[in-house]
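Researcher: Re-running this chain for the archive, since the previous output was lost when a drive failed. Same request as before.
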Amino acid sequence: MKESQSLMTNLLPSERIDDLQRKGYKIIQNPEKFCFGMDAVLLSSFATVREGENVLDMGTGTGIIPILLEAKTEGKHFTGLEIQSESAKMAGRSVALNNLCEKIDIVEGDIKEATSIFGKNIFNVVTVNPPYMNDLHGIKNPDMPKAIARHEVLCTLDDVVREASGVLKQNGRLYMVHRPHRLVEIIQAMKNYKLEPKRIRFVHPYEDKEANMVLIEALKGGKSMVKIEKPLIVYKDVNVYTEELLEMYGNE
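Model: Regenerated structure tokens:
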């Protein structure tokens, strides 16, 4: 408890502590660098983690997904892999703030080397909220931490899928949130590395708008059969979340 209180009173410049509305957990963020977005909340709700399973979150950033999954599931242990030293250290402080050091590890390292770092066939579940855009999509943010999070600066989609497959056990599951315009590319990459898409759910900002995110579950070594789930609608009116979104955020 003293460690948590110390962390709360020794934030770095521009950092703040946000309430996650789950089990009293909080997270340290720096809005001048990068804060977690809705996609992380959606991914943590879409992912299934069973009792006793070990989970790796690749490119964990603030550590939001391991913390939310620990709050929502009966998983045994959660690991976050993050290449940016400042983000990894901040995520580690959030883990300590919530007294979760025995349940969550934050490892500083490169997604492209995940199999070398952890070994093959280690995890039951991998989650990833990868950079959405390659060099053909949009203008890179001049702020490097944000550019790394949004563009394929340090790793490609192929890197992500290859390493996820490598660290997953047979019949392990990969959960990814991405953009619909890259869905064909995502499925092709998954199949190249023996990951079979099993569930796909499109996310729409409004009921009458086209999808702007897609959630995908893939099974390592699975047979070909995919379920398209009902669409997830974010807003029922301007700036008014649907009941399902409120539940995901913990505002039941």
